[in-house]
């Protein structure tokens, strides 16, 4: 008799995904704030009217970490963390709820004869769920970005920052700044998955079962490539959600294209890749955490083969935690849809 697959309700899946994402984000949060600070800064120019004399210009990831600690103490590396974790929890809760609903609707419409959805369909369902999640949760991302990039003296609480955004030139709609860029960024998982399969064929041609270090290598390489391709859009999104630089004289950007033009004008094309070091390092660390956890789980599963329901739920949580933290936004949410299918079957 075929073994029945465990059924995870939309609420159960949402709670599992949100919990895993919060834990993973908390572990690497200092890298998140450093890459955000690097992405939002503008290289100083000779024109003093275009620069802020009080602003610190970070030259590298380590310089950013050391200056933040020197100016704000260790707690400076966790500025805005409460809001960030609320955002991560709400985004992932919304994503996994809508993904589970969308997958159930697809299964109902396709019928039992259709079998499991293909990878393309899984990615499409994940992208749709990610887009819906962004509509509901991007205000928290805007507030968190403001908190992460504000000076210590100007930093406010979650609700005070939200009020500041609403009282700005955009009004309530300011809470949804960067929405278009976030929606476009759902292509990141498709790039990651495509690069993974291509690199697997290049480095491990004909090999069906990969060793942990091989899977880690491919995952890290594919995520790095996807990050490089989408980094300009990630930087533009951060620029939209943060306060405008001094050269804008308080005028906010109207689109991510305008942000890109401004960055190229003041910093050249290299400016579109600000903060890519910690962005990639963050993904590598999470991938390592995931692989080590999966290895531990593999040994546990051999000793407890009857824990079917717990096994599936645990694996789903792990796969969701990986995607949630790897890009720290909607950029990697849809990738989890492709990951869940083979993991639950194992």
UniProtKB/TrEMBL annotation:
Keyword set, alphabetical order: Membrane, Mitochondrion, Mitochondrion inner membrane, Repeat, Transmembrane, Transmembrane helix, Transport
Subcellular localization(s) per the UniProt record: Mitochondrion inner membrane
GO molecular function, one term: ADP transmembrane transporter activity
Membrane topology qualifier: Multi-pass membrane protein
Principal place of residence: mitochondrion
Source superkingdom: Eukaryota
Solcar repeat placement: 4-105, 117-202, 210-300
Pfam family, one: Mito_carr
Cellular component terms per the entry's GO annotation: mitochondrial inner membrane
Protein family per UniProt: Belongs to the mitochondrial carrier (TC 2.A.29) family.
Name listed for the protein in its UniProt record: Peroxisomal carrier
Organism encoding this protein: Trichoderma arundinaceum
Lineage start: Eukaryota, Fungi, Dikarya, Ascomycota, Pezizomycotina
